[in-house]
Amino acid sequence: MATLLRKVWESVSARSSSTSHSPLQLTSSSATSSDSSLGPCFDSIPLDILLQILRLVGPKDAIKLGCVSRVWRSLVSDNRLWIYFLQYYQGHDDPWDSVFFAELNLRTFPSRTGELSFMRIYGQRAQVSGSVIIDGGSGYCKFGWSKYACPSGRSATFLEFGNIESPMYARLRHFFGTIYSRMQVKPSTQPIVLSIPICHYDDTDSAKASRRQLKDAIHTVLFDMNVPAVCAVNQATLALFAARRTSGIVVNIGFQVTSVVPILNGKVMRKVGVEVIGLGALKLTGYLKELMQQNNINFESLYTVRTLKENLCYVAADYKTELSKDTRASMEVPAMGWFTLSKERFQTGEILFQPRIGGVRAMGLHQAVALCMDHCHAAELTCDDTWFKTIVLSGGTACLPGLAERLEKELHETLSPSLANGLRVIPPPHGPDTAWFGAKFISNLSTFPGTWCIRKKQFRRKSRANIMW
């Protein structure tokens, strides 16, 4: 590498000295020739070979070469070179396709203008210091540093943290204080990216007011703790980003309910309608508990039942066919002993499609998704009628093996051929931490915090304007 740099400098120096003796006689053609040359040692080398050489040099030395002349700067600025550097040199845990999606679709979200310079993106991403990410969740909260490969800890959600009879401000203050204490981070040092649980689903004035009150309470607490910038995004939207999509339908199987959320260009289409089913992870755990009791399988706590559900249960492709199979499987729960399940393994997840067998009066998951797709199609929000044909699953219970395949199969049988054509159901891209990874995409953007975050002065100004109004 040092030899290459020396060769470039010698080449440029020789070219400069040959023209410096007669500066007044320098013609326009000679200037053009000089500006379009890489030097006698490099002009004959094909462009692809030069780019391969620059890949070996590395980003720091490539930047130095770009300072030699306009021609070298143009060569060094080639997007193919910096895409390679982003893939192999920059120390991040995100797969390249995730980085590319984020920079292409989210850096100036929701508008995307101008041509991307991956050389500039590389430099900007190197300067992003990172942020605290808190995925509020509905069953439990995941938190961690944006530069980490995964969340570093879990806790109760802020909606259930502490004494639920305490004022919301006090509970939120206690919650965020505990998270920062466990992460050993001062609130004033880094921005925060926060996922807001899917709640107050309707498009009514009261639901809008409730969502606004929750968001304002979160901002107030965080800014009172001197957090420099806050990015609060809907949990379903983050799950969609984690699947490298900005439009689609997110099926979030939460702790108590399952929500079917249509999202277009990163915005929840509440006017189209968010479908809600009164089935969640808690109900599935409770149903497995009932089945185990009916079959005289003894256990001491719900922890055992939940562990068995997460490790042994699955969703059958065909429920009736599965009933005739031998599906016994065993596992050892630490400190609890060995447990063997049979039909309970697939009967537990079946209540998502046949709620009545679990004593729940509600529509099945496939029916709710089909209804949402019908509403999206009828709304004619864009000329593209395929945006709602990508369904992304989210939540810990959505990780049950076979769920995505069964839902896709049921939808093909339920929907008309025109709506079912091109349909795709995507399992949780990052398991139960999917929304956390969606937040990670945002916090590692080259333009973060940019337009994604609101700062204390902006929030105070907005609050005063609302009061005056």
UniProtKB/TrEMBL annotation:
Residues 39-85 form the F-box domain. Residues 18-37 are annotated as: Disordered. InterPro entries: Actin (IPR004000), ATPase_NBD (IPR043129), F-box-like_dom_sf (IPR036047), F-box_dom (IPR001810). Pfam families: Actin, F-box-like. PANTHER family: ACTIN (PTHR11937). Belongs to the actin family. This is F-box domain-containing protein. It comes from Gossypium mustelinum.
